[in-house]
Amino acid sequence: MRARLKTPLCWGLGFLFSCLFIWGVSAVFLNGITPKTWDEAVGRYVNTPGAVIRHRSEGWADLRVARHGLTPEGDRIFFSPVPKFLLWGDSYAEGIQVGAQSRAVNVYNARALEGMPRGVAVADSGLAVADYYFYLPRYEKLTENVRAHVILLAGMRAVMPSQQLDCHSRFLPDPWRFEASECEPSEAALRYGEAISRRRLDFLHAVYRSAADYRLRFCVGNLSQDRPVVERATPGPTSGELREAWTFLLGEFKKLTGARIIFFYTPLRPALRGGSILFEAPEEQAHKALFAELCARSGVGFVDLAPAFLGLYEREGRLAMGFFNTPQGSGHLNAAGQAIIADGLYRAFSGGAK
């Protein structure tokens, strides 16, 4: 009897030990999930307050979440009466790949002198100009003494019409308009996401996604694959269309607020691709120059950080993207890239918010 029980017991203990080992290792080395919740005050899904989002695949840092998707540092400033600006952006502004002390807004706040506004980052992966259009007035109503809104552009894609990502809000032509859209998490994600994140059971979510995305095949015979249909690439907007689109965009943003609006352009260049250093493409430079011209005409600020990114490479041979566990010159902004943005913010507000 004992001999018969010994084998199942050994298998059971082995399985339990394996699960505990996987749990322990993944809790340290695996990216954490991002639990979301609906925030009625700002009318959007935000990172769940109190969550700690772990990021390991690019850099090594944790992102702590407070109210309305802000960080604890941003929350304290947001709900205080001090003069402030809001930094709007996507994952490049969020800076989850670096520690809190290295994120652009926090670096700026540590340097800011008396009389300079403090910064609060309102950022999330995938956001673009159409999202900011709807969120900006909602956040502004929840606080006071907002002197400026800074919109971080990771390249010119964020302000290009019809270039939104997936389920995000859209900036569309014929006629020019903004259309609101929310990326709604699944019911299971809303129900169990916070518990999975808090207990560090992220590996279970990874296993589930792998199984759910796997396509089972039960028929016999060779697997055939349909030849993909090659579609012609649609031509991008002309300079005249862009001039019309961006004139509309800037005018609509000016109507949203009495605070200053400043666009910060980060080129994400120089970058490393295929063993070669890539610099700003001529088309990107032309788009940037046109947008800067229209900003000046509309009374909107425009700060070009391209010279600072290029200077970092020319002076020190360093690139503003890449981490110890990823190729240099690719991916998101590292601490040096975040510092460039912080320096730009300092120069923009060194005389106080005007």
Descriptive tags:
globular; 11 helices; single chain; alpha/beta; 13 strands; 354 residues; 5-stranded parallel sheet
Net shape: globular
Spatially, the strands of the biggest sheet line up as 6-5-7-10-13
Count of beta strands: 13
Tally of individual helices: 11
| Fraction of residues in H or I helices | 40-55%
Structure described in brief:
By secondary structure, this protein is of the alpha/beta class. It has helices spanning 2-29, 72-78, 91-94, 104-111, 129-141, 187-198, 202-213, 239-256, 282-298, 306-316, 335-349, and strands at residues 36-39, 44-47, 52-55, 61-64, 84-89, 118-123, 146-154, 170-172, 177-179, 260-266, 271-273, 276-278, 301-304. The chain has a 5-stranded parallel β-sheet with strand order 6-5-7-10-13, with helices on both faces. Strands 1-2 form a two-stranded antiparallel ribbon.
Could you characterize what this model shows?
- About 40% of the residues lie in helices and about 15% in strands.
- With about 350 residues, it is an alpha/beta fold.
- The protein has a five-stranded parallel β-sheet with strand order 6-5-7-10-13, with helices on both faces.
- The mean pLDDT is about 90.
